[in-house]
UniProtKB/TrEMBL annotation:
Domain Pirin C-terminal: residue ranges: 174-276
Protein name in the entry: Pirin family protein
PANTHER family for this protein: PIRIN, PIRIN-RELATED
Record domain Pirin N-terminal: where: 21-121
Family: Belongs to the pirin family.
Highest classification ranks of the organism: Bacteria, Pseudomonadati, Spirochaetota, Spirochaetia, Leptospirales
Superkingdom of source: Bacteria
InterPro entries noted in UniProt: Pirin, Pirin_C_dom, Pirin_N_dom, RmlC-like_jellyroll, RmlC_Cupin_sf
Length: 277
């Protein structure tokens, strides 16, 4: 299959979530509702406290995993299973909603830059009602793969025998790449997995497609990804590739199941106090 190309690119849409946090929704929009096994990708970046201080108070999830990667700032996690954690610069919060969890994500800063990503990863039908779970990963614990043109830090999955520390229920590769000026990175990947790249800093080219700062690109299939940086500054961003699940998706807000009946049951369980049990 050779090198992957960019089939579609987008700068996302402005949105608000939680109690009014301003963000950009890159995946999970009307134009791009999902990319099996990925349901949503939000990016947030602001140094204005009015954009983020309200945070994400208690809200429920069922049927998928959330991966929150904080590039700058401090946030606190609390959930209905008694898990607590403080997410600092470079940290990752990985939460398995499973059969049901209620959690909050609240900024622990009053000013300064808050910047990062939140990704929703679908679960196959046999795992949607598993026990909820949560773990943190510090940036220093990511695995590193170095090349002449830069390096790739790996959170989950494997590149050229280098394996990241996080174990996802649905097989995915989640990596943060850095490319020196006038350089490139070659990244071998599973040929038939779906995926995307998001540019956090700088501008890059993949095939004949230019991806400016802040853009997301959806890949074609292929065994290798070549990212070029022709600029005068280091470019970086995230690369996310996942094994398709290939099952029907029924979604209503924070509940993602396979059928409408399962969604209705999620509402019933939540309203009756039987959520997560």
């Amino acid at each position: 299959m050779g090198q992957r190309k960019i089939l579609y690119k987008t700068s996302g849409i402005e949105a608000t979530d939680g109690a009014g946090v301003k963000l950009r929704r890159m995946l999970g929009t009307e134009e791009l509702p999902n990319l099996d096994p990925f349901l949503m990708l939000d990016t947030f970046k602001s140094d204005s406290p009015d954009d983020y201080l309200a945070g994400f108070p208690n809200h429920p999830h069922r049927g998928f995993e959330t991966v929150t990667y904080l590039l700058d700032g401090v946030m606190e996690h609390n959930d209905s299973k008694g898990n607590k954690g403080v997410l600092e610069k470079g940290g990752v919060q990985w939460m398995t909603a499973g059969r049901g969890i209620v959690h909050s994500e609240m900024p622990k800063q009053e000013n300064g830059m808050l910047r990062g990503y939140q990704l929703w990863v679908n679960l196959p039908s046999q795992l949607k009602m598993i026990e909820p779970g949560y773990f943190d990963v510090s940036r220093k614990d990511w695995a590193k793969l170095e090349q002449e043109g830069g390096f790739v830090d790996i959170l989950s999955g494997e590149i050229s025998g280098v394996k990241g520390p996080a174990q996802s229920k649905t097989p995915i590769l989640y990596a943060h790449w850095f490319i020196k000026p006038n350089s490139s990175l070659q990244i071998p990947v599973a040929a038939d997995w779906n995926g995307f790249v998001h540019v956090s800093e700088g501008d890059v080219e993949i095939g004949d497609t230019k991806l400016p700062n802040g853009y997301l690109g959806i890949f074609s299939n292929g065994e290798e990804i070549l990212i070029k940086n022709s600029g005068k500054q280091t470019a970086d961003g995230i690369l996310v590739i996942g094994q398709p699940i290939g099952e029907p998706i029924a979604q209503y807000g924070p509940f993602v199941m396979n059928t409408k009946e399962e969604i209705m049951q999620a509402f019933t369980d939540f309203q009756s106090g039987n959520f997560g049990h």
